[in-house]
Amino acid sequence: LQKNPETSFSDIFSAVALSIKEKSKEDLISSNMATTLTICKIRQNGLVHIGHTGDTRVYHLRSNGIIQKTKDQTEVAALVEAGILSKTQAQRYPRRSVLRSAMGANIQYDLFQANFQMNRGDRLILVTDGIYRTLNKTQIRDLSIESSSTEDLSSKMIARLTDSNEDDATAVIIE
């Protein structure tokens, strides 16, 4: 993207998939690797483009609201969407981390794309499951409302996660 900002997400995801496939040929450990990938491209006019596969979530915060802009591409999300599991049942579902789409040597990915407008003062928060399993959407929104800066929000999220988190936790906060 730095060399050519107009590169399509389709081309980027294809290049990543090819790179992973090539890496997987180098050793046995790499042959089973897979990863999620979420990219946000923000234009100067505030137009946001998202390319996504996996279960990283992109939240858009504006004023007192929060909207999830990506869909989890997991087995449990598909079961909830189909009405087979309730949201409460999904929290205890033993295969809730199983991805239906990811970037891997022997895996087909489903590229989700979305566009939306970001205004001055809005925030985007990209979070991994290690965060959203501990802090739900409402809690993240409330922490954002209480925080005067992205640094303040980051500190508050870290403080809430430190004692209770069982998984790796990554967040990117953009204002």
Describe the structure.
The protein is α+β, with helices and mostly antiparallel strands and 175 residues long. The chain is 34% helix and 24% strand. It has helices spanning 9-24, 28-31, 75-81, 87-92, 129-132, 137-146, 150-162, and strands at residues 34-35, 37-42, 47-53, 57-62, 65-68, 103-104, 112-117, 123-127, 171-174. The strands form 3 sheets. It has a 4-stranded antiparallel β-sheet with strand order 5-4-8-9. Strands 2-3-7 form a 3-stranded antiparallel β-sheet, with helices on one face. The chain has a two-stranded antiparallel ribbon with strand order 1-6. The longest helix has 16 residues, at 9-24. The model has no long low-confidence stretch (mean pLDDT 90).
Which keywords apply here?
175 residues, alpha+beta, four-stranded antiparallel β-sheet, three-stranded antiparallel β-sheet
Please describe the topology of this protein.
Blueprint (H helix, E strand, L loop, with lengths): L8 H16 L3 H4 L2 E2 L1 E6 L4 E7 L3 E6 L2 E4 L6 H7 L5 H6 L10 E2 L7 E6 L5 E5 L1 H4 L4 H10 L3 H13 L8 E4 L1
Helix pairs in contact: 6-7
Low-confidence stretches: none
Task: Count every helix, treating DSSP H or I runs of 4 or more residues as helices.
Answer: 7
Largest sheet: 4 strands, antiparallel
- Structural class category: alpha+beta
SSE string? HHEEEEEHHEEEHHHE
Shape: globular
Average predicted local confidence, pLDDT:
90
- With strands numbered from the N-terminus, the spatial order across the biggest sheet is 5-4-8-9
Number of strands: 9
In whole angstroms, how far apart are the ends? Answer: 20 Å
Please report which band the strand proportion falls in: under 5%, 5-15%, 15-25%, 25-35%, 35-45% or over 45%: 15-25%
The whole-angstrom Rg is: 17 Å
Helix content: 25-40%
